[in-house]
Amino acid sequence: MATAPASTAIPSPLPDAPPPLVPRPAADVVIAGGGPVGMYLAILLLQAGVSVQVLEQRQVRSAHSRAIGVHPPALESLALAGIAGAMAREGVQISHGEARSAGRTVARLGFAAASARYPYVLTLPQVRTEELLKERLQALDPQALVRGARVESFEEDGPSVRVHGTADEGSAFTSTASLLVAADGARSSIRTALGTPWSSRLLPDTYLMGDFPDDTSDGSLGVLYLEPEGIVESFPLPGGLRRWVVHTDALATDASAADLAAMVRHRTGHRLDATRNSMLSAFGVRIGRAERLVRGRTLLIGDAAHVISPIGGQGMNLGWLDAAAVAPLIAAALQGEPVGTRLRGFERDRRRDAVVASAQARVNMMLGRPLPVGVMALRNAGLERMFRSPALAGAVARRFTMQ
Q1: Average pLDDT, the chain
Q2: In the beta sheet, which residues pair with residue 299?
Q3: pLDDT at 393
Q4: Which residues, 6+ apart, have CB-to-CB distance to 152 below 8 Å?
Q5: Can you give the pLDDT at residue 5?
Q6: Does the pLDDT of residue 277 top 60, yes or no?
Q7: What was the pLDDT predicted at 9?
Q8: What is the 3-state secondary structure (H, E, C) of the chain?
């Protein structure tokens, strides 16, 4: 039987990669900065029927998660964006914290009374939080977020503001909007261009932190080790990890995972496997505050408006609360409602809340500074007495969780 000649299959061409997004020529609101605060504000505005363009100069997100803590008020706000549930399922819910010193428990703090809906502090790496925000944002508008778009200048022109910049591969763009929101971080180029006074200073505290497999028996417990050489903080993370943060004498940029493990062992007695470290970072603390958050058609939120100490994990939360407060005002203004008085109230309230959050972060840092053994013993005895009072313990829990 004759056989047909073998045929040579011609491979189908691979589908072309989608062209990179370019900024739209117009939107109701342009948001400079596509981090967790900028994306969250964009989601709230899109849900309110406002068109949004988010311009992020980074081509890719950082895989480095310094921010991990999400407090109850922020979870309440993130529920408005439809992602709080997913975050709560994926993260670790810390319902209790414990302070230890010299091998004994000094104080125990519960968060059940801090929030009826979210009676815990959630830990979730920032990189995953940003993924959830991005997914929600793209579900609402696949073209809202443009990466590789750098804002270089802007000017107001009557009822609008024109934003100029450079997009992917160096092409220039102009996007016109009714409002410009700066969510572009502590080194905000928008804030600098506005000439908004910015007061900042570097604090003396420095830290070294890293993530290791969690072989403690602490489970979902957050632990503070109050030791004479300085605090050691220990927080559970998803995936069987635990983050360790150590107060250091100086900024230890050249430290290794073995160095961090040695500090933890010396102060707490706990052994970390340095060969299984998955993140290591040394950092100092700089605080800052903008004199004004609203100027003309430009608003500052998040780290562009105020930077506080990361100890206590309130910074990213503060930015989300900024966005939740200003989103309805933006929507109302675009519908022609007079919001001048409400914007002044927004500015006043957000500056006040930043002062309160910064003060709490400073208290957290003071608690962790090195002390002589005798002085630390007296301080710890005072903490033990204070936490025997349910009223005082509840007040501390509410303040710690940004209530």
Answers
A1: 92
A2: 181, 294
A3: 82
A4: 164, 165, 166
A5: 38
A6: yes
A7: 42
A8: CCCCCCCCCCCCCCCCCCCCCCCCCECCEEEECCCHHHHHHHHHHHHCCCCEEEEECCCCCCCCCCCCEECHHHHHHHHHHCCHHHHHHHCEEECEEEEEECCEEEEEEECHHHCCCCCCEEECCHHHHHHHHHHHHHHHCCCCEEECCEEEEEEEECCEEEEEEECHHHCEEEEEECEEEECCCCCCHHHHHHCCCEEEEEEEEEEEEEEEECCCCCCCCEEEECCCCCCEEEEEECCCEEEEEEEECCCCCCCCHHHHHHHHHHHHCCCCCHHHCCEEEEEEEEEEEECCCEECCEEECHHHCEECCCCCCCHHHHHHHHHHHHHHHHHHHHCCCCCHHHHHHHHHHHHHHHHHHHHHHHHHHHHCCCCCHHHHHHHHHHHHHHHCCHHHHHHHHHHHCCC
Across the range 361-371, mean pLDDT stands at 90
Q: Which of 157, 179, 153 is nearest to 166 (CA)?
A: 153
Q: How far apart are CA 205 and CA 210, in angstroms?
A: 17
Which structure tokens are listed for 191?
């804030």
Q: What is the pLDDT of residue 11?
A: 44
Residue the block writes with tokens 């309130």: 314
Query: What φ, ψ does residue 194 adopt, rounded to 5°?
Result: -70, -20
Residue range 27-31: average pLDDT? 98
For the chain, give the percent of residues with pLDDT over 90.
81
Name the least confident of 151-155, 202-206, 332-336, 337-341.
337-341
Which own/partner contact pairs does 306-310 have at CB distance under 8 Å and 24+ positions apart? Answer: 306/350, 306/351, 306/354, 306/358, 307/186, 307/200, 308/354, 308/357, 308/358, 308/361, 309/203, 309/205, 309/285, 309/358, 309/361, 309/362, 309/364, 309/365, 310/66, 310/67, 310/283, 310/285, 310/361
Question: What pLDDT score was predicted for residue 18?
Answer: 59
Which residue's structure tokens are 């081509």? Answer: 59
Q: Closest by alpha carbon to 293, among 242, 344, 245? A: 344
